[in-house]
Sequence to fold (237 residues):
Amino acid sequence: MSWQFVVSMPRPRELTVVERNPENLYVERAQALGVHVLIGDVLDTNVLRKVNLHAARHLVTFSGNDGTNVELAIKARNYMSTDPTSLQLRVHLHINDTRISAQLEEYAKFFDDSSAASIDFFGVHDLNARILMHEYPPERFAEVFGQDEVPIALYEFGRLAEQVLLEALGNCHFANQSEVHFTIIDSGENRAQARLMQESSNLTSICKIDYVEMALNAQEFSTLSESLLQSVTEHVV
Fold:
């Protein structure tokens, strides 16, 4: 994710990247683009000093661990407050689990002092789900096939699939008052998570969820019923 962020920037030479692993293959590739790369632990205050964080406008966290990202955001805010001449830093805190960001948004102490640094949340899975629903609205496919409800099949129920489900629930409201019908096809490893979604009264009262445990390969896929495949208007793999 951080590499995609780097290559999407119009002026990569304005970036400074902190990477803990000196063997990371992206280090040389980033340097070839003119990106400044510092090898070290970003939670180390000395590293924050070396990257001249006091002069930075933005800090984007991509550690891959929600807890580490939150810790870094707090440490960066505290570091910025030690110098009254610092520019105000905006921390873009990446969160894999949107439930964590929702809880933190209700935790007033987390946002008490924004004078040195403001903190906002984003999630790649959340953004991807939003783009998917915007570019491929499932109700259009349902209308083409003359269906009264909107069936969506989700293959392998991980974090991205969960976000697609939540995004669809938030946006798919239909004139005929029909509920979105989800079929979750999962290899079984994430069955507990799928069951949790099924058992949630908040979800089952506003949508239909069916669960099919199946290994995701061509041979097993051929065993899916013809009626299921023909009824689904959008398949999300």
Notes: DSSP finds twelve helices and nine strands in the chain. The two ends are 19 Å apart (CA to CA).
